[in-house]
Amino acid sequence: MKLDFVIIGGQKCGSTYVQRVIENHPEVEMIEGECPHFEDPDYQNDGLVKLQQRLALLDQKKLLGIKRPNYLGKPEVPDRIFKANPDIKVIVILRNPLDRFKSAYFHQMNYGVGPTLPLNIGAERILSGAIEKEYPRSKEVLQFGLYAEHLKKYVALFDKNILILTFDELKNDHLGLIKKCYTFLGVDNVFIPHKILDERPMKVNYAIRSVKFLNLRNPLRFEYNEDKTRMYPKKRNIVDKAGIKTIELVNDLIFGKILKKEGKPKFSDEIKSKLLRWYAKDIAQLEILIQKDLSNWKS
Prior knowledge:
Elements: E1 5-7, H1 15-23, E2 28-30, H2 47-55, E3 63-67, H3 77-84, E4 89-94, H4 97-110, H5 119-128, H6 138-143, H7 147-158, E5 162-166, H8 167-172, H9 174-185, H10 208-214, H11 218-221, E6 222-224, E7 231-233, H12 238-262, H13 269-290
Parallel strand pairs: 1-3, 1-4, 2-3, 4-5
Antiparallel strand pairs: 6-7
């Protein structure tokens, strides 16, 4: 299988932006969107065969890559990627786990796989496990921030073929981050993707009233499995498309001005302290693992 690199996340850390700047390079081609083929249950359902078919449609003279942030938190995935290509290059981008928690919490809420509760109430219930039965994926919001725990296997397998970046680098010097990616992949690092250079990572809707209203779109956009751990794009007819558009227009009219005023919700001091304690050991291990000072993540 010709698969030269994979972007594995983490979730809500800027991996979509990294994908955009890499796939814009003339020496690179990537499968659009995300590729879940290495994770369960896709892997058992001829995942590699389907991935090979998708890769075969790309220009084989270029570097070929895929992206799937979830791979970072899926323990079954590293060995499968290594088996497919032991020389593959792996790109990871990480973010302060509290900031990632907040974005992932609202991301799940926006897609109907997480609770529509105010941030601090929801965070408390995730920490206690109180909503895991009703929303099985809610545990990912917390556990996918254990970067050191998840990265150990990747570092052991891929060694020098892994590039670990941070969201802070993306914010402070996105051109420098782009050049790091190009250099790591072995393509021309003088190239500048002007069309998307000033783009920013995808925004998350943090206005809970707006989210609840926009969730009316979800049955028109997605089909879910029984426990809502997986969702699949729905084939939409004209009525579905009209319904989605109407909901979005009404949302803009009702909540447009409110969204600009509200901004991101904040953790209470109590919840922030609990999360910092929960992640403290992993952050300390991560500093050693990736040889970077992460003191700004600890306060």
